[in-house]
Structure formats: C-alpha cells, structure tokens
Amino acid sequence: MNHDIDYYNPYPSFQPGQAEAINQMLSALDDGRKVVELNAPTASGKSLDLYVLGLVLSKELDMDKTIYSTPLVSLVDQLGYTKEFSNMPILKGKRNYLCNLVPSIMADDCPFKNFGDALVYCKQERDDEECKPCKDCLYQKDRARFKASKFGATTFARYLVDPACHSNCRALLIDESAGLEKTLVDWSTLKLPATIDKHHLRSSVVAYNQELMEQIKALEKKLAGNCMKNSGDLQNASELQKNLNRLNRESAKCHKIIHHIDSEHKYFLDSEMRFRLLEGKSEFSEMIEHLDFVVLASGTPTTGIYCDDFQQINIQHPIPIASRLIHYIPIGSMAYKERQATAPKMAAMIEKLHAKSHKKTMVHCGAYNIARMLYDNMTREGRKIAILQDQKDREASKTRFLSCSEGIFLSVAYSEGLDLKGEEYPLNIIAKVPFENIGDEFIKARNANDNYKRYNLFAAVEVMQAAGRCTRTVSDFSDTYILDESWKQFFGRSRKLFPSWFTAALKSHNSVLEDFA
Question: Which residues pair with 298 in a beta bridge?
C-alpha cells in the first residue's frame, strides 16, 4: 500500500534514508510483522520517522491508538518544545505537573477521587466564578487532549502504569529504546521486608500483600473522612494520598512478583531482599501481547536480548566519519586496583586535550568517585574550569556546564539525554569504559545466567552513546577520546557488538600519541 508520507512531514524534505525507513516499517506491518527494530544512528532523524509513521498509522490506517513513547523524560520534554511536533498531544507523568491550588502538591498526590470532585471543591471554596484553578489543571488538560487523539506521546513509565495509555493502544513506537529491558526489569523490582521467608517466597509475598491491602483500606477510609476546608487540609490530604500511592505501587509489584514466581521466570533475591528479574523477556512479551505493531528505535539497539522475532531496518550514519572520529589513547587502566595510579596521568591528558580548543570538554567518568579522583589530580588551573558532577543536584551541574564559556565537565551517567551540538563542544572523552559493577551480587547472578551477554552489550551501548554526545547534526563535528586501557581487551572480545558506523570511526592510537609527544 502506498502512503503519501511527504504530506505528514512538517519539514520541507526528508534527510537521506528517512523516507525509505518509514516505507520499510509500513511494509513490515503490511507483511504481518509485529516487532520492528529501527537502527538509526545519531542525526539520522529517527524521532521524525516515528512521528510521521504515527500520523500514517492513525490517520490512514485508522489505528485505534498509536503512542510515541521513550524511557527518556528529557526527550518527551524536547518533543514538547519542538513546534514541528506540536500536533502530537503529550502526556507526561503526574509528578511533572504542579497543583494550581497548592503549588507544593504534584498531580500524582491530588487527593480528589476524580476531576469532578476537584471542580466541586473549587466551586465551593471560591467566590469568584471565573477563578477555578482545578478547571485550569495542566495535567487534566494534557490528559484530555491525549485521550481525544488517536496519536499521542507519553513517557514509557507512564505508558506502563496508566491503563488510559496502554489499554487501548494498538501501535507502540519507542524512541531511544536501548535501555528498554532495564526499565522493564525495574518495573518488577521491589525491596521486600526483612520478615519475608526466602524459602517460602510465594506464600510470604501473598501474606505481605494482604498486610498492604489492609493498610490501603485504612488510608482510603481516613482520606474519605478528611474534610478539606482550606489549603492546609488539602496539603494534609495530599500527604495521605502520597502514602496511598506508595502502598498501591508496592501492592501492584507484589502481584507481579507472584505472577513471575508462578510462571517460573528467572529472578534473583539479593541480600537486601530485593526481588529482581534476571531478564526482561517475559515482561516484554506480556507488554506487546495485545499490540498490533511495535517499533523500537535506537542508534544502539538491544532488541535481541528480549525478543526473538523481529525485523531490523537500518539507516546509514549521515555524519561523515571525519567529523566523528574516535581515538583510543591507553593512558592506563581504570579498573578498581589500578585507577589510583592511572588517575594523575589521565587528569593530565584531559587537560592537555582540552588545551587544544579551550572550549567545552565532556568527560564521561563512569562513577562519582572516579570524577572526584580526576578532579583532585588536576592542576590548580584545571580545577578552576572543571565542573565536578554534583550527585545531589545533577541538573545544577549540567546547567553550569551548558552556560559556561569554557569548562571540563567531569560527568556521571550522561551518556544519553544530553544534546551537545555546535562548535562549542569539540571534545568528548571517555575516561572509563562504563562496565557495570561486576562485584554487585545481582550482576554476578545475571552474568551466571546469560554468560556475560548483557554485561558486555550494556557496556558497548554506553560507549557508543557517550561517543555521540558532541556530534549531533550532519554539519556538526567533534573528536572522542577513549583513555581507559581496558578498552583494548573489551573491544577485542566484543567487536561484533559494534556496528560498522562505529568501527569505521575508530582510529589507531599511535598517530594520536605522536601529536602529544
């Protein structure tokens, strides 16, 4: 079936490969394929592909509900700021909306049973007929617009928990899907009380859930009897609602745990009594069971670890190799036993590389203690321009880096969700290959279960995502440097995990070292 996809493109034209990818996805649907993986590197325009695809599915194929989703909240925010996507209603999680009546209350903690009760409260408490804060509730407005449209966007966490999103959805388009399995595993993760009997886990979880249900009933009764006459009463009621929400979430996870035990899905119970699935395959299968079509889009896809039957569609990397080179300079190992000796040499190399441009340098440290170690080993001049990632206020550190004229950002967990485009950001450094903590008991159990499959894949994905932070458009450019000596051995054993667009940009370190001799 032919579709006029140009009609739905809000831009003057498609980039090379975009139109072909959209048509291939539509052909896959026409052929009866349920799951499609869109392998679309940085700057290939996968967000636009999914947007146009969503419009075709909802308007021409009359899908009952098509949802554009992503695990990245920052990407949903970005869609909201992009005028070309303004026709797509966006619904974020309730914790992103402030109450109009009491600004300290989030929509998630609204104590009213339904919107009608909230409107009645406003009418009773306010003399001015025109002043109805609940009527102007941003969450309710976004929710109404989202429900009324056949095509809308929401965060993946919201999609999972809100029946209004997933119950009538027929097509799910997930952008930046690389971290999807981790999100699905976290969805069933729950720290159980110490009283749980490990040897009789199912019956013990059932008993714990019964305790939760009794607490839920007591809170509901207390909330129903709360007479809200002023903002103070409303604040107290919201605290009750917050506790009620927590208990309901915990009870829902108890039901999931019981289901996983009954279904004999592989799980691990750690020393702190956290229940965790060892793989997300079962969650993914159940999530897509009622769907007609699923697209998982990423430049670093991980679909193969939780889905066996899918069609892969590839878009070539649109950025010239010369504009996104990746250099390996083995300064030393950042493994636990060697990092103390390596840190002074690595700090010196970071400063030396930064001195070539004196602009903004992004450094991926992998952990807060490594970021601190590199900072402490910098020269006095280096520390003046270094921005050390604040563990308690991540946004403040990021904002400081984005707004400075020159800086070295010693960052943690910013391999994705940060768009550093333009000539201000010519340098991107990976100080440590981002392996998961191999000493963690859950990682040990998962490695024993899948023979290090996820351990290596997740590290490869993190490296590729980190390498793309500073080259974001076809006309953009930057150089990435991998300084951790562990890279050589890792790449040697995991080369098949890296696509050709990445390996083509990877250069021998010898010629680079000569520049700094």
Answer: 39
